[in-house]
Amino acid sequence: MKLTIIGGASAYTPDIIEGLLREHALFAGGELCLHDIDDIHLRVIERLARGLVRTAGADLRVTATRDRAEAISGARFILTQPRVGGLKHRALDERIPLKHGLIGQETLGLGGFAFAWRTIPLMLEIVEDVRRLAPEAWIINYANPAGMVTEAVLRRFPDARFIGLCDMPTGLQWGIGRLLRVDFHRIALDYAGINHGGWVSRVLLDDRDVTVRLRRWAALLGPVARLLPLREETGTVRLFREHGMVPDPYLRYYYYKDQILRHLLSAGRTRAEVLMERLPRLYEHYAAVALEERPVLKEHRGHQSHADLASQVIAAMAAGRPTRFVIQQRNGGAVRHLPPDEAAQFPAVVDGAGFRPIPQPALPREEAELIAHIKASETLNVRAAMEGDRSLAVQAAELNPLGAPRPLAGRVIDELLAAHRPYLPQFA
Known about the structure:
The protein is of the alpha/beta class and 428 residues long. Helices cover 51% and strands 16% of the residues. The strands form 3 sheets. The protein has a 6-stranded parallel sheet, with helices on both faces. Strands 7, 8, 9 and 10 form a 4-stranded antiparallel sheet that branches. Strands 11-12-13 form a 3-stranded antiparallel sheet.
């Protein structure tokens, strides 16, 4: 069995490899192939990966290549996590909208739109390569903005063996598990919506509904959360208390838009700029532990839930072990208030044959309308990215709840197009 990671030089990769190695017997005698265009960091991760394989006592060969076709050929699972333009261009996605009084965010609003313009063409090329060079392979996607990437792939390749992932629902499971003092793998979510825009109507612990119990805690914690700075955890508690459902934490950007915008405008650095300072030290750590005979990671790029989700999905498919996850794929009626032929995010049972959606109950009207509104703007932006159509991008910017009316929408879109020009040949 061959597993390929496209974007293998990412700082997220070592944790994902550790997750895969927890069930390394599934991949015994196989190959782990890392692909990236960043040769320096690719070689660091390659050396570290070989050390992690030794530490786990796994029978797994590690290879690395800058040749994408070589990486894809013969693979059974392909994890995609490229970042087109790197953190430098993510910083532009965040900073340019802020100059105009708009939220700059990696996956939401006009920053997320610009990221989609860069990522979608590459992901479509990758899927086309996989269909030609590894037609039986499953693509497990982490590339952001994940929802718009999934929408584009399904539009171009309706039958693609493709599953989009986001670690936000898994992060909610982890947080709820910690609150209930249980292993978060015992938690399941009834989730309906899109990537970074959905609601959990029920929380299940070993198939028992514990939502009412959690609502009581939210009622107690809500007043305290209102007194604390608006962050992921406090925003989630506040929205849960106000709506009676657990939100995707990113919904705070829509419901508390003005408060978050003030914070972003007053902050000295964007999130990308913070990461640009931090990541060199993280790669230094990776390089240092890679020299050890049995390396052990002491520093990590992201939350445990990120690596756990990708590795668990691949393991469930490799083992043919039916397991429930929240995924992104064609809606097909699983999320009632969204178009059935477009991408959505919902629970599904994943196994060796693929996935089976678990239909979700309808959301209340107010919450459903906001998500449908966001989805409609993102679908327009996907078309803009695929067709290289500036006018569609402007329409999407006007429609999005974090966007802007004319003429400001056009000015921000033009500035983003100019800033990312080397990565946007479709708009030429």
